[in-house]
Amino acid sequence: MARIIVITSGKGGVGKTTTSAALAMGLAQKGHRTAVIDFDVGLRNLDLIMGCERRVVYDFVNVINEEANLNQALIRDKRCDNLFVLPASQTRDKDALTKEGVGKVLDDLSQTFEFIVCDSPAGIEHGANMAMYYADDAVVVTNPEVSSVRDSDRMLGILASKSRRAETNAEPIREYLLLTRYSPERVAGGEMLSVEDVQEILSLELLGVIPESKAVLNASNAGVPVILDRDTDAGQAYLDMVARYLGEQVPHRFLEVQKKGFFSRLFGG
Amino acid sequence: MAVNPEPSAESPARVFELKAAAFNLPVIRLLGVDMDAVSDELGVKVEQAPDFFRNTPVVIDLTDLPAEAGEVGFPMLVGLLRGYGMIPVGVRGGSAAQHKAAEAMELAILGDAFVRRSPPAPAKSVPASASGAPKPPTPAPEKKPEPRSPAAGFTLVTRPVRSGQRVYAAGGDLSVVAPVSSGAELMADGNIHVYGALRGRAMAGLKGNLEARIFCQDLQAELVSVAGHYRVSENMPAGLKGQPVQIFLDQDVLRIEKL
Q1: Chain A partners of B184 at a C-beta cutoff of 8 Å?
Q2: What pLDDT score was predicted for residue B120?
């Protein structure tokens, strides 16, 4: 049986798709057969971030409607043989996702995959509910600011009450906090909530802190999951996150203001 | 609500305006004519929410009363309702003979058009008023309104109460052994205890219990209330924020006191 992981947040633009791509790629590179599904029907983006937008033939909704089978719709990643992408449909809307249809696709994927990463759309409506309904684990992506924290909190409430695990009284979804776009300089200046502030409000296990980084935008534009950029701070932070998810003990990095060295001051690093 | 203004009168100093307005009233849908049974059942309902029924206008619905049920004892029914503090204002449905009897008790005969504001109510629909509206006596024993608390009188929550979640402890105390997020709501007919940060709303003594109290370890609440007397965050003393406190009513004044 595969482990189903939902990447969710409530609020938009916090880095769900970036995180989905990075987590899926990270798991696959560690040798786990992984599928990543874009649940954002109508606003599909994951294929761009994964750099497979020119190879999309069939999509998630086609599979649900049995117009195509899974093998036709899954796109194998060119960089990693263990990673497959199931893109969203751009021409439909979220109502095309039915509970039964999504359940069947996840069941079928579970036969051959170890991890299924579900990239949730923003909001708390149907699309987001479908993405989280069957989840075993949830990574709640949050920016260090009050509105994002409140939306994440709301999403956590929904995870605890409307998921399949909640409805069947099974063991609750394992919830993790991922703090993205973190800027230690701005935290030090009092402009941004600190890791401790967010953790106190959400009281969740911290899976990782991804620093605000130019690398993320560059990677998105290039269609390369940022985790493959191993020289960048964001890439390394995502590598740490994947290791932590798999149970390794990795200390948190990028939480302190980096002192600028002589050369970086000279060359404006 | 639909309001049809009357054409304005010529005289500049008017003493009244005639307008039409629609109101949501509780409907007592009569299913039988045994007034003793009605009295018993009504007594239970009123006991649960005495404030809800006090001086509340109610409409008696005869639509579902079987034709063979017999004569409705309007004088007794009206007396019964008044005795419980309600103000019976009219009847809906029923036969011409029943209307005549109702008119004798000075009850208005409400046509369907009066009542049917929102959806044209089919015979089986729920009464138009809010939940908690009185229900007619039914032959089968009624379900308890609050199935959520199996151990009546005490509700325990051990997971964080998140933004958007509501917890209601019917008929008793509520204890939360976790943080309560901003945007979450705690409600209890009795006391509320929060062993963790209270950032959301807490309403104790929901059904008017003036003795109810709120206890919390870390006061950061958006709103606290006891029996309807409330204070929002802005009106809480800054010195008590983040402190362990108890909140209670002292002669109609909501007091927050450090523990």
Answers
A1: 157
A2: 37
Using an 8 Å Cβ cutoff, are A65 and A59 in contact?
Answer: no
- Identify residues of A whose CB sits under 8 angstroms from chain B CBs: 150-151, 153-154, 156-158, 160-161, 172, 200-203
Q: What is the pLDDT at residue B82? A: 81
Chosen for mutation from A9, A11, A153, A203 (greatest number of chain B CBs closer than 10 Å) is: A153
Beta strand extents in B37-189 (DSSP E only): 57-61, 87-92, 108-110, 154-157, 166-169, 173-176, 185-188
pLDDT at A260: 64
CB contact under 8 A, A203 and B179: yes
Express each pLDDT in A215-254 by its tens digit.
999 999 999 999 999 999 999 999 999 999 999 999 999 9
Query: CA of B159: which chain A residue's CA is closest?
Result: A160
Region of residue B157 (left: phi > 0; alpha: psi -120 to 50; beta: else) = beta
Q: Which residue in A157, A200, A203 is closest to B163 by CB distance?
A: A157
Per-residue pLDDT reduced to its tens digit, A182-211:
999 999 999 999 999 999 999 999 999 999
Q: Is B165 within 8 Å of A200 when comparing Cβ atoms?
A: no
Supply the ipTM of this predicted assembly. 0.75
- Looking at the partner chain, which of B160, B162, B197 has a beta carbon nearest the beta carbon of A154? B162
Question: How far B112 CA sits from the closest chain A CA (Å)?
Answer: 38
Structural domains of chain B ordered from first start: 27-110 (3.30.70.260), 153-258 (2.160.20.70)
A160/B162 Cβ within 8 A: yes
Min Cα separation A160/chain B (Å): 9
Instruction: Report residues of chain B scoring pLDDT below 70.
Output: 1-12, 111-152
- Give one DSSP letter per residue of chain A, joined into a string: -PEEEEEE-SSSSSSHHHHHHHHHHHHHHTT--EEEEE--TTS--HHHHHT-GGG--S-HHHHHTTSS-HHHH-EE-SS-TTEEEEPPPSSS-GGG--HHHHHHHHHHHHHH-SEEEEEPPSSSSHHHHHHHHT-SEEEEEE-SSHHHHHHHHHHHHHHHHHSHHHHTT-SPPEEEEEEEEE-HHHHHTTSS--HHHHHHHH--EEEEEEEP-HHHHHHHHHT--GGG-TTSHHHHHHHHHHHHHTT------S-SPPPP-HHHHHHT-
